[in-house]
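User: I'm putting together a small comparison set for a docking exercise, and I want a reference complex before I start. The sequence is below, and the ligand is zinc ion. Could you produce the 3D structure with the ligand included, as structure tokens?
Assistant: Of course. I'll restate your input first, then give the structure tokens for the complex.
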Amino acid sequence: MSAKYVVFTVLLFCSATVQAEFAPAAPDDGGLTPFLEALGNNAETYHTLLMNHLSENMTVDDVIMFRSELLPEVTSPYDITSQQGNGAPFNAGCNGCKVAISALRALVRLFGKKYEDISSALNVLCHVLMNAQGYQGRIICPNILPNYGPKVVYIVQNGKMGVGETCEFINACPANTETQDKEGTALKTSSSSSRSSSSSSGSSSSSSSSSSSGSSSSSSSSSSSSSSSSSSSSSSSSSFKRHHPKRDVYKVVQLADVHIDFDYAEGAAVECNLFVCCRKNYRGKGKSSKYGEYTCNPPPRTVELFLEKAAKLNPDVLLYTGDSPPHHLWYEQLEEHMNTTRYLGEAMHRKLPGVPIYPAIGNHDAFPSNLYYVPDPDTQLLHDTLVETYSSLSEESGKNMHKGGYYQEQLAPRLRLLTYNTNYGYENNWFNILSQSEDHLHNMQDFVEDALKTARNDNNKVLLMGHHPVGTGIISFEEWVTRMCTEYHDVISLHIAGHKHTDLFRLFRASPDAWASSVQFAAPSANSYSRINPSMRVYEIDRHTNELVDFVTYHMDFSDIGSGAEPEIKQVYRASEEYGLTDMSARSWHQLAISMLSDTPALNKYENNFGTGVAANLRDRRCEEGDVTCHNNRVCQVTSSTLRQRWECNTNGVQIPTDPTPAPTDCVSSCLGLANGEYQSCQGCDVYVTCSHGNTYDNRPCPARLVWDDVIKRCEYTSTTCRQRHRRSADVIDGDEERQVQSKGTVKF
Ligand SMILES: [Zn+2]
Ligand SMILES: [Zn+2]
């Protein structure tokens, strides 16, 4: 009897999972909010419903016990007016979260033992709930519950956070500053102080393979590869095989969010009262085309067209940012799920023979979708599958993949790939309630920081890859990403993500008054679901400096997909031309953000690309001339690298520096818009930049042991202006730092 009540609330969470995944009507801001708001707005009704339901089947003693457990937690959130603040759009959603989690915790504490006994009762309740929301319960319920139910119960039984803390953690309630700061500090402390087994083993074992990794490198790389403790490729296949000596750039193709659907059926319903359509057994309106629809995941034939196009572009490497399985959560089966991942990896290798291919883990790659957790056997199976499938991964990377879905590879002379696992920062991965305080997360953070530090010491550049872009995830995780990206901005020459299915960029700033020093690009998806023209992207990396030079976005226009003609994949825009950028530096993207605040056509051009040119997407996001709030909120999405920053930005307005002359404490990585003269370099305290008619001469070393003072504009023994973090981040003794900078200067100039 009692287990029924656990199920009732587990059901709410499973329902929330579905909602969370399919709020991508607003792909950039989706999540649990709509579900929790509905719950919060009806908190008292829900409470009454729950108690009535319980009372029917409980003894009087049970009811009294349950009330005494449940009421203090469930009733307290009704009044949350005192918690408003931080500009967070919270009220009903926060309330709803507290109601749901309180009830779940009380039920599990009182009655919950295991999930398995209750599946049939759950089905009945699920049908009621789904049908009430207008969805096809008969399809969703019997399949989704067995996958999510046991894991949700496990998380509730083992989670140590309080109700309020949990709701803040998953971004349903405004972050309590103290709590978040505590978490941030804890993370920083653990990541910077510990020498975990993961990071140390990563370094030591990778050093054993450094000799082979240098095999395809040119002679100029010999010093860096020989001293590298982290060049982890152990076979020649993991370096760029095809060097195109006549070409000035490496071509890095990114594919994002393929979500391939083997059961896609031509002629099936396009509108189907499910979150995603185009399967034979779904009822509804319309007839799907041969190649896909805006409401569906793509068939293999469409994906293959993308891989063929990628091959024609003759890339040096293909980076796949994850999310292979389709969105039909209610049909997810472990084996099929892994088969999708396997098929796609094999198809990539088959269509692009000889091209190194590297994956990042998406939230849909986990089984069931979103629930990534290293100790979980299903996550271990995913790691196995990825390592078996992606043959470009070195042995060392395979080991690191098993530890937590991260790795690094030496791609070319002085150029490394570093893949990190953003599932640890995804707010809809409830396993993070547990992972937050566990070693596997901290090991990954140590690995990333070590890898960046080593790359800097070896004078290497890093291509950084993850699945989720920053801006809507777990705040403490995104604060960590922000710290990495600003401290190592001189090392990271490209930072890519996917997941949102839309086309966007994010700026990282070291402090609220600083110019952006780092930028992240999320490429639009290769899958059309949620009104996207299936897309892919090519980044161009300078072969000599290993810096990003430009990128080009391609897509397949689905606007007349019903015609039956084979759709073509065409170039849509080249970033430098589209946005009028002279280079790809963070400073240039920062300037674009400034212009988007007041220049409506510029903003709407970005928004049009954001929605991959689908007219309906732009209609939803276009700002009218003079609509300050609209412009502000759009630009806030670009300038905020954590959700907390975004809340503050939405409330207080975009507050980024706009003065083209940097403040004395600022640094310069591009001379765009600057007067002739010398400035502090962003590469370190002991180097400066000379600007001459817009040309940038960076990395100009001060004499030994001197540092640049940006007020008196010369090298001195101490600087009144260079921020400590530049020096600290290098984390090397003076002599080493000096040599490092000098060697950089030698290589570059
Ligand atoms: Zn996706
Ligand atoms: Zn995703």
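The radius of gyration is 26 Å. Residues 82 and 334 are 45 Å apart (CA to CA).
User: Thanks, that's exactly what I needed.
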